[in-house]
Amino acid sequence: MFTERLYLFHELSDIQGLSPYKPTANYIFVRINTNDMPSSLLRERLLEHGIAIRDCSNFLGLNNKYFRVAVRTRKENTTLISTLKTLLMQQSHRPMKIH
Q: pTM of this prediction?
């Protein structure tokens, strides 16, 4: 599982807009660096693809820019990574709403 944890951490590190924290357990905390994607929205979008993440916005000291992912199998981790890349790319290309 150590190999898979390292793989997932490095793959998450390569996604523009995300900053994962080096894992010490079987999950990885991640900070979202874009203004247009709160963790609750990312969670909803990933659920539409059958992927569950933990929205950490209610953790003491964190806000809506943090989530947690579990280290899974290579196939599941690869699916998570590709889906995250797609969703974050789609979100960054959406026009900003002016109220």
A: 0.87
